[in-house]
Amino acid sequence: MIDILQSIIPPALFFSAPLIFTALGGVFSERSGVVNIGLEGLMVMGAFVGIVFNLTFADVFGAWTPWISIIVAMIVSAIFSIIHAVASVSFRADQVVSGVAINFLALGLGVFLTKQWYDKGQTDMVTKPFYTTDIPLLSKVPVIGDIFFQDIYLTSYLAIVLAFVAWYILYKTPFGLRLRAVGEHPAAADTNGINVYKMRYIAVIISGALGGLGGSVFALTIALNFSHATIVGQGFMSLAAVIFGKWHPLGAMGAALFFGFAQSLSVISAGVPFLEDVPQVFLLIAPYVLTILALAGFVGRSEAPKANGVPYIKGSR
Amino acid sequence: MASNKLFNILVPIISVLLGLIAGAIIMLVSGYNPIAGYTALWNGAFGDLYFMGETVRQITPYILTGLAVAFAFRSGLFNIGAEGQVIVGWLAAVWVGLAVDAPMIIHLPLAIIAAAAAGAIWGFVPGILKARLGVHEVIVTIMMNYIALYCTNEIIRSVLTDNMDSTDIIPPSASLASEWLQGLTYFSRMHYGILIALFAAVVMWFIMQRTTIGYELKAVGFNQHASKYAGMKVSKNIILSMAIAGAFAGLAGAMEGLGTYGSISVMSGFTNLGFDGIAVALLGANTAFGVVLAAILFGVLKVGAINMPTGAEVPTELVDIIIALIIFFVASSYIIRWILLRFKKEGK
C-alpha cells in the first residue's frame, strides 16, 4: 500500500503545482469581478519567459537559474496581464473576449519570438530545470516522509503554501475584504471609498503574476522547452479548478490537486496493480469526465461573485 | 441613436485596420519589411487560382465554427466546445463515409447529417447540464473538448483501423471533393462544402430573424428572468441553442472529413478550428452575415500567412498576433466609439 501511495502522490503533486498557481491567480481576478479566460495565455507567456530566461542566463546564475527564471516570468506575465486589465476595467471590454485575445496574443508572440530568436519552432531543452529533492528532516519521518517528502519538487509545496497565503490575504486582511467587495457589489464598495478600478487592476496583475508562475513552473518541471504545444489547455483546466473550487483559494487548490491526481493516473498506471488492465483512453478522459460528474452531482450550483464579468461604470446603477 | 448602425460597421473595420497597422509595426521592430510581408500575405491568399482555392477551403470550416460560437452567444451561452464538436463531427462523417455503402444521393447527405448529429449531441450535453443543474457551460465544454479528442483518437486506432494513425480515404460517393473545382484552381483542395457553409449561414439568419424559436433564443440571451416571466421555457431554449450550435460545428468537421482530407487521422492536439471560430464570431458581432465576412478575413489571413516565411521570411505566427489584436480592438469598442464621438463633435 505504501509503495502504491509512494508512486501516486509525488506525481500527483508534481502535475498539480502549475494548476494550483494559475488557479489561485484566477481566484484573485474573478473575486474582484474580472473574468479571466486569459489564464491560458498568461501561462503561455510564463512558460515562454521562463524557458528563454533559463536558456539565456543558465551560465550566469548557475543553480539559482530556475528560481530566478520563475520570478522573471512572474514579472513579465504580470506586465502582460495589464493589457487584459486595461481592456476589461478601463475600456469596458467584454472580459471573455479580451481574455480570448490574451490567449491568442500570448501564443502568437511566444512562437513568433521563438522563431525569430532560435530560427525554429521550438527552443532547445533547458539545462537548469527544477530537480526533485528530499525535504530535510521531514523526509526522515517514517511512512509519511517516504510518501510526501522524498523525491519531490519544492515547487509543489510552494504551491500549497501559497494557497493558504492566498486564503489568508483574501479572507483575513482588509485588502482581501476590499477585493471581494469590489467583485460582489462595486457600487457599494465605491460608496465606501474603495477605488474599484485600482482594486481590479491589482487583482488582474496578481493573476498575471500567478499565471506566469504556473506557466513557468510547468515549463521548468514538465515540458523543459517552449513550443506552440507546451501549454495546451492547462490554463483552461485551472479556470475549471477556479469554478470547481467555488472561487475559494483552498477550494481551487483542492480541485487542482484532484486534476493533477487524475492526470498522473494515466502516466503511472503501468506501475499500479489495479490500474494496469484499464485501457489507456479511460484514464486519459477520467479527469474530464469526473469533473463534469462532480460539478453535476456533488458540488451543486456554483455561484460566481455577483459582479463577475460586469465592467464597473461609475455613476451607473 | 441613428448612428449606432454606422458604429457597428465602423468598429470592426477600424479594428481590422488597427490590427494590420500594429502587425506592420511589429514587423518593422523585428527587422522585417512590412510591405514585403503583406505582399507575401496577399500573394499567399490571392496570388493565383491555387491559393484562392485554398483560401476558400479554409474559409469553409471557419464560417461553420463561427456560426457555432455565434449562435450560442446569442442565447447568452459561451461555446468554447466548438473544438470538440468539430472533432466528433469529423469522426462521424468519416465513419459513415467508410462504413456505409450507398449511392451518392443517399451516402453524402447521410454522412453530413451524421456529422451534424454528432456535433449536436456534443453540444446537447453541456446544454442540458446548464439548463437542469446550472453547471457552468464554459467548464463542461472545455472538458468535452478533451473527451472528444481522446475518444476520437482511440476510435481511430482500435475501431476504424487496426492500430494505424490514419483511416482509409472515403469512397467518392461520400466525398465533397470536386474534380471540377480542383481543376479550376490548379488542384487546390477546394470542395463543394463552401455551399453548405453559406447555406448554414442563411439558416442561422433565418432561425434568428424570422422564426419564433429564434426570437425566444435571443430573448433568453437578453434576459432569462424576463423570458421566463413571458412564459418561455428557458431550459428548453438553452438546450436547443447548444444543440444547434453543436450541429454547426459538427458540419465544420464534415467539411474537413468529407472535403479537405477525405479521412481522419490521430490528432496530437486540437484542430484549432473551434478556437478560431470564437475569434470569427466575435469579429462578426455574432450575426450570420458578420460571421461570413469575418471567416473570409481570417481564412485569407491564415492561408496567406503560410506564404510569409518563404515570401518575406516573416514567421506565420505574425498573423496570430494580428488576429489577437483585432479581437482586442473589437472588445475595446467602447474606446473606439468614444474617440469617434470626439472627432464627430469637433467636426461640427
Structure description:
The complex is a heterodimer of chains A (317) and B (348). With 317 residues, chain A is an all-alpha fold. Chain A has a single domain (2-299), classed as ABC transporter involved in vitamin B12 uptake, BtuC, CATH 1.10.3470. Chain A has helices spanning 2-31, 39-61, 65-90, 95-118, 144-148, 154-172, 174-184, 186-191, 196-223, 234-244, 249-268, 280-299. In chain A, α1 (2-31) packs across α11, α6 (154-172) runs antiparallel to α11 and α11 (249-268) packs antiparallel against α12 (280-299). The longest helix of chain A is centred in the first third of the chain and has 30 residues, at 2-31. The mean pLDDT of chain B is 91. In chain B, α1 (4-29) packs across α2 (34-46). Chain B has one domain (61-308): ABC transporter involved in vitamin B12 uptake, BtuC. Chain B has 348 residues and is mostly helical. The chains are: A mainly alpha (317), B mainly alpha (348). The interface between A and B is large, with 47 and 47 residues.
Relevant terms:
heterodimer, A: 317 residues, mainly alpha, B: mainly alpha, ABC transporter involved in vitamin B12 uptake, BtuC, 0% strand, transmembrane helix (chain A), transmembrane (chain A), transmembrane transporter activity (chain A), membrane (chain A), cell membrane (chain A)
What is the structure about, briefly put?
Chain B: Keywords: Cell membrane, Membrane, Transmembrane, Transmembrane helix. Chain A is built from 12 helices and no strands. Chain A is an all-alpha fold and 317 residues long.
What is the ordering of alpha helices and beta strands of chain A?
HHHHHHHHHHHH
Structural category of chain B is: mainly alpha
CATH class categorisation of chain A: Mainly Alpha
* Cα-atom radius of gyration of chain A: 20 Å
Find the structural class of chain A using helix and strand composition: mainly alpha
- Gyration radius of chain B (Cα, Å) is 21 Å
Strand composition percent of chain A: under 5%
Give the chain pair forming the largest contact, with residue counts.
A-B, 47 and 47 residues
The low-confidence parts of chain A are none
Helix content of chain B: over 70%
Summarize model confidence as the mean pLDDT of chain B. 91
* Number of separate domains of chain B: 1
Count of discrete alpha- or pi-helical segments spanning 4 or more residues of chain B: 16
Total beta-strand segments of chain B: 0
- Summarize model confidence as the mean pLDDT of chain A: 87
The name of the CATH topology of chain B is ABC transporter involved in vitamin B12 uptake, BtuC
Low-confidence stretches of chain B: none
β-sheet strand percentage of chain B:
under 5%
Q: Tell me about the largest β-sheet of chain A.
A: none
